[in-house]
Amino acid sequence: MKPVQSLLLSILIVVLTAVYSDAGWLIYHKPEFRGKVIDAESRQPIEGAVVVAVYNKETLGVGGGNMSSIIDVRETLTDKDGMFRIPSYTTFIQPFSWEISASFIIFKPEYGTFPKQHNYPPGLSLPDQEIFFSESIGTERSLKAYISGSYQNEILKTGIVELSKLKKREERLKAMPSPVSEISFKKQRLFIKLLNEENRNLGLEEYQIK
Questions:
Q1: pLDDT, tens digit, for every residue of 140-161?
Q2: Buried b / exposed e along 24-44 (16+ C-beta atoms within 10 A)
Q3: Mean of the per-residue pLDDT values for the chain?
Q4: H/E element holding 191?
Q5: Which residues of 147-166 are buried (b: 16+ CB within 10 A; e: fewer)?
Q6: Domain ranges of the chain
Q7: Is 123 helix (H, G, I), strand (E, B) or coil?
């Protein structure tokens, strides 16, 4: 490579690094997520609910446009107090990719599912979901919630999720989430175990971990 070409390439790399540094170029990092899951009616903690954090990124597409994809998942179960904690997550991603908001699934057989069918918080955008699970539990925070057909600023208590017990089979079928399809089932063992428990209860086919 000629010296001039080498110099131009070096300048291009520096410029691209500067442009993408604010978007997490090469380094992908998410904070610790935490929360508390309770029964919406009894107000008692729900033990043994699975909480799945899904780590998403976006990549600059060839010919324009961006492509979203999933990097990884982490899962945990709520304890006897309904509490959960997922440690911070850091990894590397290829150039021209950047982090976007994480998404979440909270599930226990016979209950509504977050974010499909839950009582609290009101519908949140993905950026607001991430903030909701990043703050100290019970902190009052203004977030955009989807209420009556539009997003409105609401004061919410962060980290607290209320799920209702579902009595009808139709309700439970509607609330059933699916595994994260882009990630190996081996990384979702807790999630798959509870999904299969509900599948057996409802007479559905079980997922297989290979």
A1: 999 998 887 888 899 999 999 9
A2: bbeebebeebbbbbbbbeeee
A3: 88
A4: helix 189-202
A5: eeeeeeebebebbbbbbbeb
A6: 3-178
A7: strand
